[in-house]
Amino acid sequence: MFSTPFVLSFALLLSLPLLFLFAPRFLPPKHVQISLPDELDDLALFRRATLSSSSSLLLNHHHHHHYHAVSRLGTTNPKPKIAFLFLTNTDLHFAPLWELFFQGHKPLFNIYIHADPSAKLTIPPGSVFENRFIAARKTERASPTLISAARRLLATALLDDPLNSYFAIISQHCIPLHSFQFAYRTLLSSPQISTESPPELTQFNYPTSFIEILSGEPQLWDRYTARGENVMLPEVSFERFRVGSQFFVLARRHALLVIKDRRLWRKFRLPCLNTQSCYPEEHYFPTLLSMEDPNGCSHYTLTRVNWTDSFDGHPHVYHPPEISLNLIHELRVSNSTYSYLFARKFSPDCLKPLLDLASGMGNLVSFLRIGN
C-alpha cells in the first residue's frame, strides 16, 4: 500500500494543472490600473486643451454654420473640420477603405489614433494615417481606461487644431457607409439647437452632438451597481444614470465639457466589482452629457451596430459571405432623423470583399457614393 504522504503528494502534483486552469475563473480578475503619474499627465493635457480652446476659437457662429476664426495660416472664416478619433488595440484593418473615404478632402478633416502599446500597426508611407498617433496607454475592456483613451483623443484634437468642430470616435472594426461629402454635409448642416450650456454663450445656437443616451434598459441597475451598491452617490443617482454606445460624434462644446469634467470622472474611474455588468465607456459619456446638456444631444448614434445575436457583450460580427451592396443599404437605414454614417463590427477579412464590391462597380469611389 502507498503511504499517506505519498498519496497526498501525488494528488497535489496532479491538481496543479487543474489549479492553473480553473483559478482564473474563481479569482477576481486583475485590471489595468490608471496610475497617479498617468492621471496627472492627462490632467495637464486637458488643462492645456481647455485654455487653448477658450482663447482661440468659437467666437461667433453664423447661419452657414461656419466658425469665424483665424487659422494658423491666417485665413479668415475657414471651413470647420471633422476630427476622426481612432481608438484601437489592433491594426487598422480597414485603413484602405478609410483612405478611399478621405481621398481629396484633406482640408476638411484631421485624424488622431490612440493605439494600445501592445498593438502592431502597419501604416504604409504616404498614408493619411501616417504620423497621426497620439501618446497612448494600455486599454482594457470593463475598465475606465477606455474612457481615458477617448478623453485623451478629444483633448489632443482640441489642442491640435482650433478648426476641429466635430469629433467622431471610431473603432478599428468600423467602416464608412457614405462618402465623405455626405458625412460632412450631414454633420455641418445639422439643425442648430438652443441650449443653456455653456451659460457664457447662450446668445448663440449650437450644433447637435450625436450620442446614444438611453434609460430604462433591462440591465441598467446591474450596471449602476457594478462598483458597489451606493458608490455612485451623491454625484450620480440611479435616476440620472444612462447607457449608450461607445462610439459617438461630439460637437466641440461637448468635447470641451468632457475634458473639463472632474466630478463624474472620480466615480467612473473606480474599479468594478461585477465585471460582467461593467462597461464604463458606455455609461460615462451618456450620463455626463445627459446631466449637463440633454437638449444639446440627439440621444442616438450615427454608428450602426447589430445586437441581434450578441455574445459576451460583443455585437454581431459581419464576415465575408455577408458582404453585399444590399447589406450596405440596410446598414444605412435609421429610425432617427439621419442615415447611419458608419457601421461595426466587421472581421478583418471583410476588407477584400468590400474593396471587390467597390471595384466591381466601376471604381472604388463609387461604392461610397451610392445613394448620396
Automatic annotation (TrEMBL):
Residues in the signal sequence: 1-23
The keyword tRNA-binding is assigned to this record: no
Domain of life where this protein originates: Eukaryota
Localisation: Membrane
Any one of the GO CC terms: membrane
UniProt membrane topology term: Single-pass type II membrane protein
Main location: membrane
UniProt KW keywords: Glycoprotein, Glycosyltransferase, Membrane, Signal, Transferase
Keyword Glycosyltransferase: yes
A molecular function (GO) term: glycosyltransferase activity
Protein name in the entry: Uncharacterized protein
Species of origin: Camellia sinensis
